[in-house]
Structure formats: structure tokens, C-alpha cells
């Protein structure tokens, strides 16, 4: 059931997070949106409310533990509980290792790995106390298959895969009824390529996305499907991409 669930979404100001927010709100969820661009969040919340949905937002930089804690507290204060956290914030400044774009490596580790850890650290005490909860994370096909220009990005997404599977196993062992779902999207048309500064990587990614890219609505439906399963059922992994994308 999606109706009335309280769902926090990180990276909700564009792309997959925005699409998930709109779809889940249209199905009766109470969505709590976080990202750094509050002007975008305000617009999305306004749109959701105008179509009869329930949504609030708060500025969130996932690299800061205190801001992750604050958005979980906001959800509890406004809606009384938290049922789902969709850990989706991420960036993909792809480049060859030899370009030594070390600032970008560190930024990916901070947002794509530590951002996920911070979100889990913020919400897990609530889920454990409730004895229920659902952690959903956006990994990537880059977390399943290595490819040139994706050494660090792929590494961050492999981390998410490993972490989420261990979280699933431990939650089952601890009988906290916490479900997990990890999503591995391929080429999805969003703002993701905007952070690529390496010219060669940017050109080859653009070609792939121009050729194959599909709408972020496709990922939103998978998120909704995972949440809609009965409470005793976990679908832990989804690989989702364009039907015609070979890799
Ligand atoms: N598009 C694809 O083909 C694809 C494929 C596989 C995986 N993914 C993954 O999907 C997720 C969503 O990306 P997208 O494709 O929807 O791209 P996007 O449109 O660029 O969205 C990325 C989101 O992350 C947020 N974000 C970035 N840094 C943040 C920070 N420090 N704190 C909080 N939020 C932050 C951005 O918001 P602000 O800038 O407003 O903070 C934005 O809302 C990412 O984890 C990405 O790695 C995407």
C-alpha cells in the first residue's frame, strides 16, 4: 500500500527523485522532499499540492548528518512517522582515472556513499523503534558492470549494492521488519550528465543518452511497485533501463 505512507526522498529537486515524488503523491503518499535547490523543491511541492497531493520540503545537503537528521524529524513532526526513505541523491562526474579529477572523486564519495550512510543513520532508529520501515536506494548499472570513465562513480554505486544487501540481511536477522530495495538504472534522461567536466566522457555519455535514454517516470514506477508490495515481502533489486540499450 502506498496511500498514507510517509516517504522521504533525497535528491528530489530533479530527475528520478522529482518523478518519484510526483507519482507517489498522486497515489496518496505524504512525501517529504529534500535537496539543495529549494526553489525547485518549492515548485514541485506547489505542483503536487495543486493536484490534491500532500508534500513538504526542506533544504538538505546529504553530506551533512545534521541535515539528514533534520528532515527525518520534520517528517515525524508533520506526519507522525516515517515509512520509507528513498536515498536517491547522487552525482556522476565521469572521467578517466588518468585525468586525476580528485576533487570530483571525493565529491562522489561524499554524496553517493556518505550521503546514503547519513540517511540510513538518521532514519534507522525510527524504523527500529516502529519495527517497520523501507529503505530504497538508487545505485546504477555502473554498480553492476565496470566501464571506462566510471571507476569512481561505479565504485560508489558498488558500495550501495553491498551495503543495502547487508542491511537487508541484518534487518531480517534482527526481525525489525525493515525492507530494502536497490535500483540499478541504466540511461535515464535527467540532469545527471550536467556534472561531467571531462570533455571526452561528456561526449560519449551524451551520445549514449541521446541514443537510448528513457524517462525518469520509468524508475518512479519501480519505486512505487517496491513500496506497494505487502509488508512481509521484499523485492531487493531492480535493474531497469531502455529496452534497446545493450550495455
Ligand atoms: N540518470 C541516469 O541515467 C542514472 C542511472 C543510474 C543511476 N542514477 C542515479 O540516480 C540518482 C538520481 O539522479 P538523476 O539521474 O535523477 O539526476 P539529477 O536530475 O541530476 O538528480 C540528482 C539529484 O541529487 C541531488 N543532489 C546532488 N547532490 C546533493 C547533495 N549534496 N545533497 C542533496 N541532494 C543532492 C540534486 O539536487 P540538488 O542539486 O538540488 O541538491 C538532484 O535532486 C543518482 O544517485 C544517480 O547516480 C541515474
Short description:
This protein is α/β, with parallel strands linked by helices and 247 residues long. The chain is 48% helix and 16% strand. The chain contains seven helices and seven strands.
Please provide a written account of the structure.
The structure is a single chain. This protein is α/β, with parallel strands linked by helices and about 250 residues long. Helices cover about 50% and strands about 15% of the residues. The protein contains seven helices and seven strands. It has helices spanning about 15-25, 40-50, 65-80, 100-130, 150-175, 200-210, 215-230, and strands at about 5-10, 30-35, 55-60, 85, 135-140, 180-185, 235-240. Strands 3-2-1-4-5-6-7 form a seven-stranded parallel β-sheet, with helices on both faces. Helix 1 (about 15-25) crosses helix 7, helix 3 packs parallel to helix 4 (about 100-130) and helix 4 runs parallel beside helix 5 (about 150-175). The protein is globular.
CA-CA gap between termini: 34 Å
Strand count, sense and closure of the main sheet?
Answer: 7 strands, parallel
Strand order of the largest sheet: 3-2-1-4-5-6-7
User: Count of DSSP E strands?
Assistant: 7
The overall pLDDT, averaged over residues, is 98
Low-confidence stretches: none
Strand content: 15-25%
Alpha-carbon Rg, integer: 17 Å
Helix content: 40-55%
What best-fitting shape do the alpha-carbon axes yield? globular
What class, by secondary structure content? alpha/beta
- Structure annotation, total helices: 7
Order of helices and strands: EHEHEHEHEHEHHE
Bound molecules: NADP nicotinamide-adenine-dinucleotide phosphate
Amino acid at each position: 500500500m502506498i496511500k498514507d505512507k510517509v516517504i522521504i526522498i533525497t535528491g528530489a529537486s530533479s530527475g528520478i527523485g522529482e518523478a518519484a515524488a510526483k507519482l507517489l503523491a498522486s497515489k496518496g503518499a505524504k512525501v517529504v522532499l529534500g535537496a539543495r535547490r529549494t526553489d525547485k523543491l518549492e515548485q514541485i511541492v506547489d505542483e503536487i499540492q495543486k493536484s490534491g497531493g500532500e508534500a513538504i520540503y526542506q533544504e538538505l545537503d546529504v553530506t551533512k548528518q545534521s541535515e539528514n537528521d533534520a528532515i527525518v524529524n520534520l517528517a515525524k513532526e508533520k506526519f507522525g512517522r516515517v515509512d520509507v526513505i528513498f536515498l536517491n541523491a547522487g552525482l556522476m562526474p565521469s572521467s578517466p582515472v588518468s585525468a586525476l579529477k580528485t576533487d570530483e572523486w571525493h565529491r562522489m564519495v561524499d554524496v553517493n556513499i556518505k550521503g546514503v550512510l547519513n540517511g540510513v543513520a538518521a532514519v534507522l532508529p525510527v524504523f527500529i523503534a516502529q519495527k517497520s520501515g523501507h529503505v530504497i536506494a538508487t545505485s546504477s548499472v555502473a554498480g553492476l558492470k565496470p566501464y571506462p570513465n566510471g571507476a569512481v562513480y561505479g565504485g560508489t554505486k558498488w558500495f550501495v549494492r553491498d551495503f543495502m544487501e547487508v542491511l537487508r540481511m541484518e534487518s531480517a536477522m534482527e526481525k525489525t521488519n525493515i525492507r530494502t530495495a536497490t535500483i540499478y538504472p541504466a540511461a535515464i534522461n535527467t540532469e545527471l550528465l550536467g556534472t561531467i567536466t571531462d570533455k571526452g566522457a561528456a561526449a560519449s555519455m551524451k551520445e549514449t543518452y541521446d541514443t537510448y535514454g528513457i524517462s525518469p517516470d520509468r524508475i518512479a514506477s519501480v519505486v512505487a511497485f517496491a513500496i506497494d508490495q505487502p509488508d512481509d515481502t521484499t523485492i531487493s533489486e531492480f535493474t531497469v533501463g531502455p529496452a534497446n540499450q545493450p550495455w
